[in-house]
Structure formats: structure tokens, C-alpha cells
Amino acid sequence: MDNSVLSTDPEANNPTSNSKSRGNWVTFPFITGTMIGLTLAGVGYLSNIIVYLIQEFHFQSISAAQLSNIIIGGNNVFPLVGAILADSFFGNFSVLTITSCVSFLGLVLLVLTALLQPLRPPPCLTESSLCKSASYFQYTVLYGSLILTSIGFGGSRYTLATMGANQFNKSEDQTTFFNSFFFTLYSSSVIAATAIVFIQEDVSWAVGFGVCVAANFIGLVIFLVGKQFYKRGDKPEGSPFTGLARVVVATVKKRHVELSSRCEDYYCEKDEKVLDIAGSLTKSFRFLNRAAIKTEGDIKPDGSIAKPWRICSVQQVEDFKTLITIFPIWSSNILVAIPIAVQLSLTVLQALAMDRHLGKHFQIPAGSISVLVLITNSITVPLIDRIFNPCWRLITRKYPTPFQIVGVGHGMNVISMVISALVESQRLKLTDGQMSVTWLFPQLILVGIGEAFHFPGQVSLYYKEFPVSFRSTGTAIISFIIGVSFYLSTGLIAVVEKVTNWLPDNINEGRVDNVYWVMVGLGVINFVYYLICAHLYTYQNVEVEQ
Predict the structure, then answer these.
(1) Which phi and psi angles does 504 have, rounded to 5°?
(2) Of residues 2, 51, 114, 24, the one with CA closest to residue 365
(3) Cβ contact 423:440 at 8 Å
(4) Which residues are bridge partners to 305 per DSSP?
(5) Using one digit for the tens of pLDDT, what is the confidence trace for 125-154?
(6) How far apart are CA 346 and CA 366, in angstroms?
(7) Alpha carbon distances (Å) from 448 to 220, 378, 405, 445, 476
(8) 58 near 133, Cβ under 8 Å?
(9) CA angle 310, 316, 321 (to 5 degrees)
(10) Percent of the residues in the chain that have a pLDDT greater than 90, as a whole number
(11) pLDDT digits (tens, 9 = 90+) for 213-248
């Protein structure tokens, strides 16, 4: 951001202080170190949670997969809550500190469920399929730990991304930061989903979860150590959503007021630039312009607003329009994330029913199978900037637009679902786990490539396109859509279980391939919807090469 970004620290707002030295790349090691610690902790416990629930709490496989989707959904819904709190009331630094402490407490509880036998049900008898269910108290501790971790990791992840981008003034530096941020995210996730999962399965669950606790603590310490170097951003001045509500109310109240083409008839706050109303404000959603028209009694003699629910500034109206125009684009993520959520949970169950041996002595943990997605992410993200974009420009003489990059990701996900359906059809023809788990690799690689295109690209796009007062919300909104999609995928699986016989507890007796074909159909419909939305959208702040 530019000079409008001021630190919430009083010293930083003092013109005589050294606030200009804050921010920029000196903060990058602290932001990155925090990201590594929190990612190792969050992904480390979540990657193998399905197996933990099945083995230690005696969940049925489909039930464990559904609970896993709910947890992942929470991890992606709570970033929006954290972003709103950061934008509206507390700022990024405070929200990050609090949520990191919450995730730490949640992991401590999870460690206790693995360490203390009274906090989990007794093991199943070796020669019996009868297993005692967990008690109400045991479920309370388990679910409490999972809720706290979801709130903590969800609230910190994208708030950290926004805070990191806020350290830079130049757009190209912000883009570089986002690419580095997601490379760090994916690389750390690979380590967590392999090394920590290996510890959980080959050493003990308690030690594995203990490593997650340590990583969370170290990440929090690194973040606090860098406090003196951070540029905090604008001091929150209340919820920006109140301004949006005022636009709606003021528009309704002035629905009979005639529109004007004169700039002086519209209200601009003192720190706003006077806009060319006839040229910019009236181009889209003209009816909303009434909210900024000055009428008798709206403005005090000193130029301030007398009736805040009857008049808004031009900037507030424009912010509302921006959110309306971008809504269809980020809504298209729902039917991208639902198939991915379904695939990731079902892939673990498929892996459990397949031959997971690589050689005679090594067996891939089922919970680590999705690490291939993260590995592919880590490799693909830097290749997009260094290979894909230059090659695209060499062929078309233009750099790819953000929507073109995201569109490639959408297409890759549809292809991945097709391959998933074909592989599962072949697996069902074999019995007794004769099919190697390596047959799942192509679909996971394609999902990883697709995510590398559409996920970081959209976060960066929304950060730039959303109004300044909504920047934390903008980076978190994609995560919120993913979270909602995981919840919808849980509901979808429940519906499929109820109306079909495709998903029995033993998937060898089901038709998971039919589920994937349904995902293919949803993906194709969504891809067409996305292309239409992208074609109709006009960029607000992103410069596109002509």
C-alpha cells in the first residue's frame, strides 16, 4: 500500500519517528518463520486425523471422512471471521497473536487425548470387531480440541498473508510476497504431511501431536520477536460492513431522488478525491448513486455527515459496487472446491483399500497420500512465474491475465476428476488390494497443478481488487468459500449415502467412481459459469497488458 498505510503504533504515526524503516523485506523472515511454524502444526495434525479417528476413537470410515471435511471447513471458514475482526476492530497483529494462542491450546488438548487413556475409548479386542464407543466426556474433549484448532489456525493463516502484503508499497513486491508465501505454505505442508505423519504412525500419536504443539509455539514466538519491525497498517475504524449497510439503506430512502451528473451534488469525505461522477460513478449500478446525493439536512455546516443512514460518501458507494461485481467470480470457487474436498477425503479411503507398499519395507501412510498435491503445489507455483507466464507471452505477445491463470486451474481440476473416476472404475475390477496406490498419483498431481494456478492467483487478485478497508476480508474470502464447500461436500456425501448404495462403509462394495462422475458434471457446469463471469468482469485495480 501507499503512504495512506499508517502503523497503529503511536510512534509510527509520529512524523518525527523512524516509522519509514518499518515494513518491507526486513519483516519477511519473521512472517515466513511464523508461517512455517503454524503450517507444520496445522497440517501436521490434520493430515492424519481421519486415521486417528478410526484407530483411536473407533469412527466408521465415512463418518471419519465427513468429520475431517467439517474440520477442514472450519479451518477455511474462520479466516473470514479473523479477517473481519482484523479489518474492523483489532488489526492484523492482535488477531494473529490471539488466534495462534487458541490453536496452541487446541493442540495441547489433542495431545492429551493421545497421551491419556481416560480421554479416549479402550482399544478394540484383537479377535473381535466389537469396539467400545467413546464416552460423552471423551467426545467433548476431542471435539473441543478440534474446534479450538480450527478457530486458531483458521483465524491466523490469511490474516498473516494480508499482514505480510501490507509491509510492501509496490504491487510487484506484493505479488512476489504472495508467491513466496504460498511456496512456503505448500513446502511446509509437505514436511508436515510426511515427517509428522510418519512420527504419528511409527512412533506414537502423542509424540506426533507434541511436535505440532512445539511448532505452533515456535511460530508464535518468531512472530512476536518481529513486532518492532512490522508496519501495522491503518488503525481499524469500525466495521466496513456498516458502510455497506448504509449504502443499501440510503439508496432505499432516496429511491425517488433524481440522479445528477454534477460532481458537487455528491458527497465526498475530506480525504477522498473528487471523482468524475459522470464518467465513473454512473457507469454501473446507477441506482446506488442516490446514496451519495446530498439532500437537505444530510450535511452539517462543517461538512460532516448529519444523517449517516441517509447519505454515504462516493467511495463507500464505489466499494459496494466493487463487491457486487466481484461476487460472481469468487462464488465460482464453490464448485471447484466441492469436488476437491470430496476427492481428498475419498482418496484416503481408497488408499486404505489399496496396496500402499513401495518396495518390500516401506508402506505409504494413507493419511500422507494427499501430500503429493502439496509437493506438486510447491513445484508448480514458482514455475508459473518463471516458465508458464513467459511462454504464454512468447506465444500470445501478452502476459496471461489473472482470470486466464485461474481458468487454467479450473480446467485442470475437471480433468483430475475424470481421471479419478476412471482409476476407481479400474480399482473396483480388482480385489484384495491388488491395485497399487501409485494409480492415485496422476489425479493428485493434476489437483496440485490446478490449485497452484487458481488458489494463489485468486488470493492475490482479491487483495488488489477489494477496497482497502476490506483487504484482510478479500484475502480470506476465497478461504471462506473453500470452507463452505467442504461443509457442502459433507452434506453431498450424506445425501449420496442416503439415496444410493455408492458409499458403503466398505468402499470395495460401493461405486465411488459414480461419485467422481457427478463431480465431473459439476465441474464442467462451473467452468462454463466461470468463463462467463470472467468475460463480463472489468478490472478495478489490476493493470492488464493490451
Answers:
(1) -75, 170
(2) 51
(3) yes
(4) 299
(5) 765 567 788 888 988 999 999 999 988 988
(6) 11
(7) 28, 9, 14, 5, 20
(8) yes
(9) 110
(10) 21
(11) 999 999 999 999 988 888 866 566 666 678 888 899
